[in-house]
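User: Last request for today: this protein with pyridoxal-5'-phosphate, please.
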Amino acid sequence: MTDTNYQPETLAVRAGTVRSEFGEHSEAMFLTSSFVFPTAAQAAARFIGQEPGNIYSRFTNPTVTMFEERLAALEGAEQCVATASGMAAILACVMGVLKAGDHIVASQSLFGSTVNLFNNVIKKFAVETTFVSATDVAAWQAAVRPNTRLFFLETPSNPLTEISDIAAIAKIAKAAGALLAVDNCFCTPILQRPLDLGADIVIHSATKYIDGQGRVLGGAVLGSKKNMESVYGFLRTTGPTMSAFNAWVFLKGLETLKLRMDAHSANALQLATWLEQQPNVARVFYPGLPSHPQHVLAMQQQKNGGGIVSFEVKGGKEAAWRLIDQTKLLSITANLGDTKSTITHPASTTHARITPEARAAAGISDGLIRIAVGLEALVDIQNDLVGGL
Ligand SMILES: *Cc1c(COP(=O)(O)O)cnc(C)c1O
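Assistant: Here's the final one, the structure of the complex with pyridoxal-5'-phosphate:
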């Protein structure tokens, strides 16, 4: 099914489905490492790419291909390459499109392991990164060097939900001869389609909302056939590809993505609005609130504010830990995008490895709490927090 006139809800349940000769209705899980060939001549034709078809599940697998086609339809991408995790997607992206001597301009508000990957792994291969403010468009322009080949950002950022102007930054990237990659993990294509706004590459940690129920790890890189060629080539050779089992879980996850994102976002907006009225809350960070500094931009490039709410309690770390420890319903874990609401103290967990000075510069105070709002009743989430506030 390639008709892109279908609405996202339709694509989410129908796109990419290929049935075997048995005519199964639900997508089949092909747990096989390799595929057989009718004849020696056809084996040869497939290996040299003369004949389409599966060879080995590190290269392609029918269940994984169905997932790739479905996510590509939702993002409006020519091609999707599925990976073993979100980090494998980011690694495949940089290894695919960059070479030694190239330079990256990246948002300073990135997922911790992404910062580590840029600073400590690919740097060893002579790729340098300059980190700039997620929200200061002029800083992206100022950081461009003659060898800049990649811009990389996440929007909204974690945990402060800063919004980067995708269209404006895409223009700067294009003029610089660089590609813009957007990690779209927080929004998913249901809320934001970066390629429509001028980005060249979309990255996903499917582990989060695409699974949506906290079961398996996976990721994806999406873009034009031209840009995906080297990304796929890297994966096929080096191996961090998605398993058929995980692809099957993600296919089922995509079928409810629209319903879940709408419900997460509706819950999050109401929770954020309520938190703003609590006397012991100093500040709430949520793109759907008019008080958010980039509210207008967020509402232009996203359908709504999404499911992540951060807020600062008065009383610093002690008050934040007290609030977290008195909850009975919310899960104390750093994961997000689950049906179950999760509560995190970024300064002592996800952002504990950076220096206190760098944390302060990034605006991550000791009183900051992040909630990835799940699908429980809003009143139960509020009641779980109210004692600690
Ligand atoms: C979780 C996450 C990743 C990494 O994904 P994994 O599936 O854990 O490897 C990358 N980017 C963002 C924004 C994330 O939240």
